[in-house]
Amino acid sequence: MKHIVCTLAMAAALIITSCQAPAGNQQTAGCGNDSTKLSVAYVNSDSLLKNYDYAKKLNDSMNDKIEKMRADLNQQRRSVDQDAYEFQRKVNNNAFASMERAQSESNRIQKRAQELQEQEQKLSYELQMEQANLSAALMDTLTSFLSSYAKGRYDVVLHEKAKNDLVLYTIPGIDITEVVTAELNKRYAASQK
Questions:
Q1: How many CB atoms neighbour CB 134 within 10 A?
Q2: Which residues, including other chains, have CB under 8 Å from residue 89's CB and lie 6 or more apart?
Q3: Could you tell me how far CA 52 lies from the centroid of its own chain?
Q4: Which residue ranges of the chain lie beneath pLDDT 70?
Q5: Residues 132-169: pLDDT tens digits?
Q6: Helix (H, G, I), strand (E, B), or coil: what is residue 57?
């Protein structure tokens, strides 16, 4: 539903913009009896993120963090499981000297399991927040670049997340994803020197 509302809002913005666009641009869009020219392009963000070196670096870094987190949590989970197994073995063999000692051990294992679950939730939340911040930074980079790149070239630059997600029909030549990706990669390579 949110996607449909977003798509409708983008379409409405495009129609409003085309009705107010100055004459002399590349693409023609009609509004009522008036006909104005509107220069439009789009960027496929899936392709951009797949081919933009900085985005690939951030993605690899995030995947490394996720793998490390999972490995650490799995190791801790195995330790708790081993303690629970040993506890059950002792219970089955009547190895505890008293019921109080058995209850104390059971409480300790349950507390460790609860702490592990809380730690897992906390780390998951932190990773989600970091992913959101990285996505926002990438979008800011793209928006900043497009604002200077599109100036004087395009009146509207649409964002397409997946093939045919927002763009229903285009004429050849208005997909600027490759050009934008190449320019962003040049800037990123220069910043790494």
A1: 15
A2: 95
A3: 14
A4: 1-36, 160-171
A5: 999 899 888 988 898 888 888 888 887 766 655 656 56
A6: helix
pTM: 0.66
Separation between Cα atoms, residue 115 and residue 79, nearest integer Å = 13
Do residues 174 and 154 touch, judged by C-beta distance below 8 A? no
Nearest Cα to 185, choosing from 154, 151, 141? 141
- Sign of the four-CA dihedral 21, 23, 27, 31: positive
The H helix count followed by the E strand count for the chain is 5, 4
Distances in Å between the Cα of 56 and the Cα atoms of 47, 51, 135, 138, 167 are 11, 7, 12, 11, 25
The answer to whether the beta carbons of residues 47 and 177 sit under 8 Å apart is: yes
pLDDT digits (tens, 9 = 90+) for 126-137: 999 999 999 899
pLDDT of residue 78: 97
Ramachandran bin of 28, using left for φ above 0, alpha for ψ from -120 to 50, beta for the remaining angles: beta
Residue located via tokens 């208005």: 174
